[in-house]
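INPUT
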Amino acid sequence: MIEIYKHTLANGLRVVVHPDNTTPLAAVNVLYDVGARDEDPGKTGFAHLFEHLMFGGSRNVPSYDEPLQMVGGENNAWTSNDYTNYYVTLPANNIETAFWLESDRMLELNFTEKNLEVQRKVVIEEFKQRYLNQPYGDMSLLTRPLAYKTHPYMWPTIGKDISHIENATLDDVRNFFFKHYAPNNAVLAVAGNVHPDKVFALAQKWFGDIPRRAVPQRNIPQETPQNEARLLVVERDVPADMIHINFHIGGRMDADFYVNDLLSDILSNGQSSRFVQSLLKEKQFFSDVNAYISGDMDPGVFTVTGRIMPNISIQHAEEAIWHELSKAATNLVPEQELLKVKNKIESNLVFSEISFLNKAMNMAHYEMMGDASEINREIEHYRAVTRNDIRDAAARAFRKENSSTLHYLRRDKNANGVNGNFSTED
Amino acid sequence: MMTNIPDRLNGPASEPIGEIDFLPVLETTLPNGIEVTLIQAGSQDVTKIDWVFPAGAIQAGRPLLSSTVGNLMIEGTTSRSSAQISETLDFYGAYLSTQTYFHNSVVSLVCLTKELPELFPLVEDVIRNASFEQRELEIYINKRRQEYILESEKVKTIAARRFSESIFGADHPYGRQLSLSHFDAITREDVVSFHRDAFTPHGCKIVVAGQPGENIVDLLTRHFGMNDWPKGPYNGNGVDDIAPSVEKFQLVEKEGAVQSAIRIGRPIFNNHHADFIPLQVVNTILGGYFGSRLMTSVREEKGLTYGIGSNIMSYKNCGMWYIASEVMGEMRPAAVGAIFDEMLRLANEPVPDDELEVVRNYMLGELLRNFDGPFSTSDIYRTLQEFNLDFGFYSKMVDEIRTITPARIMELAAKYLQPDDFYVVVAGK
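OUTPUT
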């Protein structure tokens, strides 16, 4: 149970606070309601590039990091398809510095050609490091456009093509800022050794004079229902075949979110899960197998992936996955098994509340979705899910015509190819 | 009194970073001699328990064996199947896992405190009566082999492995690398006998953190403290002197790599040396935080990488200081050059006062973060214990961070950042 205090400034900034006096520290988290789904199809990767630019100095502060480090702080940020999130942890007695820095960059960024040029290069190196230079790194670049034909979830946050980043101009950057970065499009969450009234006063002092901005109404083209199975086959220099299947499901605010989350846990969360017990241990078809949901705000996907053992054909592996999926869609899950995954949700919730930074991030997320206090009712939603709900959700999702399958195959190489570079590893 | 007009140019006044409030540590000994450490704190009724056994890769004498034993313990005992064990753990929302290090293996349980009485019999069974069925061993080894093959494709892994070989020696336990042949060689007999010898009360230590409840010592005594648990032969953790390679530069070519992984570093002493603590400050300036010189030069000014950092690692009787990054393939020589430039600059120019002030405060803030809460405190405590150190080590570090001078930093850099002492390993092109 998290104790939550809320206040909204006149300019629309929502402020949520959770006091936790067991730590000498505090977390200040600013969540903006902008993500990769808000990008122009010709300028993808922008929300994420923008996240990098947010550290290049703001109207009155030439360096974001230095003044923060000077008071013992540390910060980072992430971008998803739905949101961009910035967070700071610092000694609680210096919390006002975080308000200064975060408010100044909400006020206005210092847009410079030099900063843009360097961050373009850094993001391109990030693209290479994460998506091009890792085995299986480009999978999301393949699976997203297979599952989404209309919705901007078709590209990952890094963007669909490096050239979009290379071609970003300072004008693009300026427009993006004033369109999406605004007090009325953000949530400020603070957790740690703080007093709510003091936090509200600081929020008013530093954020109060930032003007409300005209944030455009979101008008995202939604995906039309899929009605035939999709298959993409690629070959790459990787050590083992992989299979990746996406099924369309609902969005984060739909009732089936909790059902699908539990269903994915039944399939693959923990050593006792069905996939691990059946596919990995009993059949030994896979060296790794997973099921998870995207949890996106707009209707998302239920994903099943598996890395296949060398002597097993991808067809066999795929059949074995479908056998488990069909079982979930046909038979009621035993009461005890459902109770088990619910218990695990509950214990994970308690574990996540150990960290004041986690609490700040979660509060911001829930407030953005409507109400931070919903965090405390989360477990009730999970507890209310029935065996029938699980079976029905599986039957709705796990249909061939609702599936987008990627066969990511190992390119045939000569005999000892997989480890050929390792002259020193005897 | 807070003013209501924001001074956006200068920012608010700040306060000095507070002292670390080290959590109290209680120590006790079970009837069979196992030392128990209790760090009781936290707002949630959760508990983390670590069982530390002198059962690392060094005692096992070869790669793969100790981690296999650690991971296979939860895959079946003389009275519980693998499925029963995972079913129980998942039902109680608990996590039981083993981490293997050079000199020890650590079995960790994280759970809601109220489930401890249900989980203790299971953990006792797993640690004492693991059965190591042939079938479970095969499943595990086949899976691990695939993970190893996959890891071996990554330039970062290729560089890290070759680097350890270079600075410690390919035959030294710290430099010795896992290879495919180890997967073929391991047998059930090896596994059973290493478990029998090394996972015993002899040399075992237990660290408890969180809010474990009042009867935790009774529970530990009942399940892990009695004399019916036989003691194995204790292995004293000995390692020979390191044998660095003669070759100072190595390139492992990887076809089609668009980035090269680089590791640049040197062998160095461990945390018992008088210069270790002040060197932490030098390391932070060089590559230990986001505003570091390496991040500023190689990422923020030149845009050659997504990230670069440096680190000093302590081992039982030596250590290593290294810089790691993945950089634009065709610009690799420029990146390596920029790294050496920054090392030399630290030795030749005094660190400006404002930069040093930032680093001092950043490091003090980082220590507060590291010591926040019982779980992270117990992890630090466990590591200190391995080196026969206590929290006093960090009190000394706080003093050093506050008082070190630019002259001293230059002197240390001149002594320990000599380019000739450094090994360069590149994987990619």
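end of record. Chain A touches chain B through 94 residues (CB under 8 Å).
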